[in-house]
Amino acid sequence: MKSATGMSASWADASPWPPIRKSPAVVVLAGIDSSEIVDAALADTALTEAAMPRFEPACTPPCDALLWRLETASGESLNRPGLLDRHWHRRPYAMTLRLVEYQAGSAVPEILDEGTIGTRGPRTAFMAAADRLAMRFVRDAALGRGRGPAGMLPAAAASGLPGWLDAMQAKWHARLTAEWWSIGNTTVALDHVLSGNGLGDITWYRTKAGHRYLADPFPWPGTNRILCEEMPLRDGVGRIVAVAEADGTLTPPTVLLDDGHHHSYPCTFRDGQTVYCVPESTLRGTTRIYRLNDDGRLIPVCDPAPHFRLADPTLFGWDGRYWLACTDLDLGGHDNLCLLHAPAPTGPWTTHARWPVKIDVRGARPAGMLFSAGDRLFRPGQDCSSTYGAAVAIHEILVLNETDFAESLVTVLRPDQTGPFPHGLHTLVHDGERFWVDGKRFVLDLGLFRQKILGRASHIFSKAGVG
User: Fold this and answer.
1) Domain CATH for 353
2) How far is 431 from 369, CA to CA, in rounded Å?
3) Which residues contact 435 (CB under 8 A, 6 or more apart)?
4) Omega before residue 366 within 30° of 0, cis
5) DSSP letters for 261-278
6) 262-296: per-residue pLDDT in tens?
7) Could you tell me the pLDDT band of residue 248, with boundaries at 50, 70 and 90?
8) Are residues 70 and 126 in the same domain?
């Protein structure tokens, strides 16, 4: 039979016949057991209109039909008894999941999607996160939005203490300690860092724990000042302040944004003579792009994401468009990278065709301004697997457009274990001369411990109807 490809396009466009609706593809879905999350996802009309899943949790390849199977990086079925418990709260505190396709009658896998989630936190939350990610893979693959292989090494095999014991230690650690952050800088060359040689000697400020700390440093272009978050050690919310370096110390903070809501991560971006600032504001729809005037006033420009809760929004320009990299908190706290793009900082802003473009607790969440070296573009990301802001992973962006994204890991910057901030390295920015970073250490805080215990007791009594 002859092909219809020789038909005139104008005739086809003018055809009086209604388009034929394509039947959804039938696919066997395996490697995951029924749960509230899985059942709800399988009933989603967006999925069922694109694919007709035949749910057979125990099916293994080869199969008599097209098979989609949820697996670990080692090829184990995700629903293998005890597998998730074997990974929960055990080093490296990260687990790589895949959606793998097998053609009918074949045992040769093709990775449709891949991501790495954290394994710390409550056990039930980890189990739910695995189910949500698995079904996101299935839905995105059915809709043609799968991310394919991640291009990153999978997480290593689980090891160390049993999960229940590690979780208990983490719980008491959180009760007894608080995080103390500060900012610092280093004059090490850009090539030195990108070659994997680290940050060299860092000059740290405010190393002694006090009542309010500084984090999230960003340069204020055209000045010698640094914008950062100032956060109370205990109660309160973060605010945006500006500081300057003078004789080896920092000047007293000048407040730029303090409206009673939490603000942090004041990402700056210079576009010609205009400086923009995009502070993190994690309430839904409150991410706002400001113009930063010379006098420190923040003038609202637009709200690029009115329906999202975004963390660490990072504004940058590339290939004639403006981009906003961020983490969607409705998808996960630390493990996803999402993108919006626009023809101008004023918008209109559009979400990337893939949302998110990357899922990896080891570096997806933004960790500072993007920077370039020649025609190469680099993106710092947070490694939050062992703790929030544990290290900074630098990636080179290989593909960036409205429909596709790819990057590769260049190096990982970890805190100096002998320095004043051995427990975290969270932000990395370059002001043209120096790198600015922030660091974390845990400090014993018995006052905070008493506060947490009293709050827990009050909660228990309230639930019991006492008092």
Assistant:
1) 2.115.10.20
2) 10
3) 185, 186, 187, 188, 193, 199, 428, 429
4) no
5) S--EEEEEEEETTEEEEE
6) 999 999 999 999 999 999 999 999 999 999 999 99
7) confident
8) yes
Secondary structure of 102-129 in HEC code, one letter for each residue:
ECCCCCCCEEEEEEEEECCCCHHHHHHH
Token readout for 229 is 């978050």
pTM for this model (two decimals)? 0.91
C-alpha–C-alpha distance, residues 407 and 151, integer Å: 8
Among 227, 291, 225, 283, residue whose Cα is nearest residue 259: 283
**Coil/strand/helix, residue 66:** coil
Q: Are the beta carbons of 62 and 22 closer than 8 angstroms?
A: no
Task: Kindly state whether residue 14 falls inside one of the protein's structural domains.
Answer: no
What DSSP assignment string belongs to 327-390?
Answer: EETTT-SSSEEEEEEESSTT---EE-SSSSSEEBTTT-SB-S--EEETTEEEEEEEE-SSSTT-
- Check if the beta carbon of residue 147 is closer than 8 Å to that of residue 358: yes
CA 19 – CA 245 distance, rounded (Å): 67
**DSSP label at 394?**
E
Distance CA 76, CA 228 (A): 44
Same domain for 99 and 40? yes
* Final residue before a domain boundary, out of 160, 183, 214: 160
The residue whose two tokens read 């996160």 is 129
Among residues 355, 354, 275, 353, the alpha carbon closest in space to that of 315 is found at: 275
Contacts for 172 with CB less than 8 Å, ≥ 6 apart: none
CATH of the domain at 136: 3.40.50
Place of tokens 């066997």: 28
Q: Please provide the size of the chain in residues.
A: 467
pLDDT of 74 reads: 96
DSSP single-letter state for residue 256: E
Residues 6 or more apart in contact with residue 187 via CB below 8 angstroms = 200, 433, 434, 435
Give the integer Cα–Cα distance in Å for 230 and 227: 10
Spacing of C-alpha 214 from chain mean position: 22
